[in-house]
Design goal:
By secondary structure, this protein is mainly alpha-helical. The chain has 15 helices and no strands.
């Protein structure tokens, strides 16, 4: 999720100011690093209200009637992932692309799943029961069952471990459920987006980028409309392969990939980003369907312009990418804080949760994510997964 590729300009030279999205991507702008960090932080902020017991989630700036701030940030992740990962998929052999994606996503994800199931859920069990007796068992609700399910990247998700947090946190009491890490749900969907764009990459070699990605994008849009108009029929037909959520996120992802095809024609401060923003604001007040699809897809054109503005801040990160870890660990940290009674001011909650999660994110980056890519990766490329 961070740019580690070689710069295209001579050593010590300052790259020219990017004018198009293609310029921004080809220069591996640090603005993308900063943008992903901001999006991960917005997810943490959005979850603070329900997890900390402060009320409903803040609303999306584009679709306040229908979507949350966290939903806006997740859509931004998928749009940017489609743009950056899509360009990688169509330019690299399938094996190299798959290897890069596995190394970027799986080590950090697997570690977070294990940390969530054992130390985090174990602390909650200890708090609720006064000891660890009975915590680890062979039941489907136990930590081992949780780890097994999530490591298979299934979309039939079970979020609880032994019922922890249900009676000891505001969110558990409100939902009546055990949610030890409610942010992990996006990762199985992102992996499926990678599978699709990998297959599209094979088609590109025969039919070209514009036709291959354009057809995949149009077909996904048609399926999305089908789900909207006839959800029972479409769900019964393809629901086991592509549920409604996957189709929606894939449409946003492939919009990013389609923008990547025409990136050299989209000026960062031209009329297209402003037109896309206007469309998102209009449809965001029209319907849930249009907000989730057209409004979120518009972020593929809007956010690169934001990345330009964030580039100076991104350069200070020096390639350190904490966004993935921030996304993976924020929810369990917030649940623990709520369980131990941190309440009163939501912004104090945000500050404390961010500070603790940043430490875990740094440990994930320096101890797991970066070493995996550097040790087993054959090539260096932008690290662009979701929250991530």
């Amino acid at each position: 999720m961070t740019a580690v590729a070689e710069a295209a300009t001579p050593t010590g030279a300052t790259p020219p100011r990017p004018r198009t999205i293609a310029d921004l991507v080809e220069q591996h702008s640090p603005g993308f690093d900063a943008l992903r960090l901001v999006l991960a932080f917005l997810v943490l902020v959005s979850h603070t209200w329900p997890l900390g017991g402060f009320g409903d989630e803040p609303r999306s700036p584009l679709a306040p009637t229908y979507l949350t701030l966290g939903g806006f940030a997740v859509a931004g992740f998928f749009a940017m992932s489609g743009l950056l990962v899509g360009r990688s998929a169509v330019r690299r052999p399938l094996g190299a692309f798959a290897r890069a994606r596995v190394l970027r996503i799986v080590p950090g994800y697997a570690t977070a799943v294990i940390v969530t199931a054992l130390p985090v859920a174990g602390l909650a069990w200890l708090h609720e029961h006064g000891g660890l007796a009975g915590f680890v068992d062979a039941s489907p609700e136990g930590p081992l069952g949780y780890i097994g399910r999530w490591l298979l990247f299934g979309t039939d998700m079970v979020h609880g471990v032994q019922g922890v947090f249900t009676s000891s946190t505001p969110y558990g009491l409100a939902s009546g459920s055990s949610f030890v890490n409610g942010s992990l749900w996006t990762l199985p969907y992102e992996v499926r987006c990678y599978l699709v764009i990998g297959m599209v990459g094979l088609a590109v070699r025969r039919w070209g980028q514009q036709r291959s990605i354009g057809v995949a994008w149009a077909l996904t849009g048609l399926v999305a409309v089908g789900y909207h108009q006839s959800p029972d029929l479409v769900g019964h037909t393809i629901g086991t392969v592509a549920d409604r959520t996957l189709v929606m996120l894939l449409f946003v992802f492939l919009t990013g990939s389609l923008v990547g095809v025409f990136a050299d024609r989209v000026r960062l401060m031209g009329w297209m980003p402003f037109a896309a923003l206007a469309i998102a604001l209009v449809v965001g007040r029209w319907s849930m369907f249009l907000s989730e699809h057209l409004g979120n897809a518009a972020l593929a054109v809007v956010l690169p312009s934001v990345a330009v503005l964030l580039a100076p801040a991104g350069a200070r990160l020096r390639g350190v990418d904490l966004s993935y870890g921030l996304y993976l660990y924020a929810w369990p940290v917030q649940m623990l804080l709520a369980m131990y009674g941190l309440d009163g001011n939501p912004w104090v909650f945000v500050f404390v949760a961010t500070a603790i999660t940043a430490v875990l994110a740094a440990a994930s980056w320096f101890g797991i994510e970066r070493p995996a890519v550097l040790r087993w990766g054959r090539t260096r490329e932008p690290m662009t997964g979701v929250p991530r």
